[in-house]
What does this fold into?
Amino acid sequence: QKEVEQNSGPLSVPEGAIASLNCTYSDRVSQSFFWYRQYSGKSPELIMSIYSNGDKEDGRFTAQLNKASQYVSLLIRDSQPSDSATYLCAVKEGRRALTFGSGTRLQVQP
Amino acid sequence: ETGVTQSPTHLIKTRGQQVTLRCSSQSGHNTVSWYQQALGQGPQFIFQYYREEENGRGNFPPRFSGLQFPNYSSELNVNALELDDSALYLCASSLEVSPEPYEQYFGPGTRLTVT
It folds into this structure.
């Protein structure tokens, strides 16, 4: 049984701070990793994908992957109130379906 | 906008009825995956279609069935609706070309309420 674990939150950070979201996964054969952002009542929106160990940066977002520790994280720099949402971590093996965590709710306080 | 569309947006059905949800994938994508998302949970995988054939299935009973058409659009059918089927149903499309992993893009979802 593949599992993806996330702290449900809420994680509360002040505007302009760095938000750090964490995710662990149980299946060592997982090959690709994704972060989705989901606003209340909306569908998930892909914000980052990462396939290799290390860091991957895209604007204010940095994804970090450590396959040995089975750990993936998302950093959001200069957090804005518009970043307030639920962040879903998902893992994938090859062409198989995504396995999602239950999400971390982020609140950015103005 | 991902280019993935779903219809209808909202739907209210009675227990025991049947429902069909529809999805049009992003242009050029050959794979459609369906997910069920209950309130406060992450999406749960229902099944995936690749080139009109079911290519994987999650832990859902046979009353959940689907189709993929030659234009790669897809349908999700649910028979004998139960109250617990109330959820947001999400369709995601991707271009799956082995062995590379590809990103999945979600449509806006269909909110199903079973009373």
In short: DSSP finds no helices and eleven strands in chain B.
